[in-house]
Amino acid sequence: MAVVMKGMEVAKSMKNELIFRVEKLKESGIIPSLAILRVGEKEEDLSYERGAKKRLEGLGVVCETAVLPEDVTQEDFEKKFDELNVSNKVHGILVFQPLPKHLNIEPVKERIHPRKDVDGMSPVNMGRVFANDKKGVAPCTPAGVIEMLKHFEIPIEGKEVVIVGRSSVVGKPLSILFLQENATVTICHTRTKNLEDTCKGAEILVAAAGVPKMIKASMVSEGCVVVDVGINVDEEGKLCGDVDYEQVEPLASYISPTPGGTGSVTSSVLAKHVIESAES
Amino acid sequence: MAVVMKGMEVAKSMKNELIFRVEKLKESGIIPSLAILRVGEKEEDLSYERGAKKRLEGLGVVCETAVLPEDVTQEDFEKKFDELNVSNKVHGILVFQPLPKHLNIEPVKERIHPRKDVDGMSPVNMGRVFANDKKGVAPCTPAGVIEMLKHFEIPIEGKEVVIVGRSSVVGKPLSILFLQENATVTICHTRTKNLEDTCKGAEILVAAAGVPKMIKASMVSEGCVVVDVGINVDEEGKLCGDVDYEQVEPLASYISPTPGGTGSVTSSVLAKHVIESAES
Question: What are the binding residues of B for NADP(+)?
Fold first, then answer.
């Protein structure tokens, strides 16, 4: 029986320290504050927003959403963004992505103040994380994976880590974070020829491919630590991860469920990044 | 018998196109120009400088060195750098590293104009390369490895690539470049437990660890493509790579020698980056 790595446990253990830091900030008259910039009313955005707002406000972090209409022009989108980017009341900005197709996120990525870039989307932050510069802010999801493993006291140093998926928001930054923890890291993707064997070589397997239940029992060695970053909807309309949980759980030593796994850590990391920005 | 991948062959094949592009620039009154910023008279720097100068000037690219004394202050170092960074006659800046210990490279890395950053040392360029943004400039050495493999028409897509070494100038950026070519990439380093087996799984093995002759025959599968990025001095005072060439060559299908291998491609890539900057 695998130990189930529940995200809420990780979030809880981060809570006390974060509340303490918010109190310290408030004593110096600073109220840490996140601005969410949302275009339109997409259900995924709204659902993430509700969760993040609840988590952040529970820690004493202010969370305000600027909503723009679905058909906002690039100019008005950038104008709103720039307001938040210069405001000294805003410590962090989270722009929901993907944007509607007529909008281009790039100018905003290049322009966001590195300290306000709490989800690590700017090239400057990616480059800093890449160069192991402590000032760098990593995207919240991959940073949450590392938080989760550390919370469960899973050794990372020297381990064979296999990451399935090479996105710029999860797979690639996560590979860098694992390297910094002295893991041996392999990144697989759709063009990987021998995915099954490669995954079987993993001591820690991270699924971040965005393909429902693609990680099967045949791909996992006994005792493997399995972290599922995928959030998908299965054929019955239920949330599921990239891991076929029922098949894989009996083999794993530790496994994160979906829902209730890594996703619940992401918003705590987001809060931490806003607090760090307010402290700096 | 392995095919020996000579760097000069790659450089030669890049030459015609680069000369053509320099001619086009000159027709519009632009002379592509690199400024080298060197502190002190270290032999490695001087040797690299001679090679780069010869290569660049052979292509019609102007190459001027600003030399500062070994004991220059941080302030004077940055002042000189800023001069080059704002000059509209300079299209690229190469700062020799490592600097003497009393100097800090970081402010300069953060401040260099992304287009002038022809060796991809700034966080912005690293972040852009990371995010697969075409504007990103990769460091010359890893970019040269990909040039070399392409020149020899070695397929990369779907291949198992193992990189030994995780430096910010070679190993890490190279892993990203290989991912963009759709390889399955594993990064090893000193903390990797089972280096021999991991290396044996490689179809393309890149040695970038900075340890003389560490890649032995027992670590290489028959038919492997072996790329050596190391430049070291052996016990007899001769230049050698990270690969034990005599042991490994009979097993490899392709192998790059040291000297005369990847190093000779680096300065052609540098020239290309200066020309691209002048064109933009």
Answer: 165-167, 231
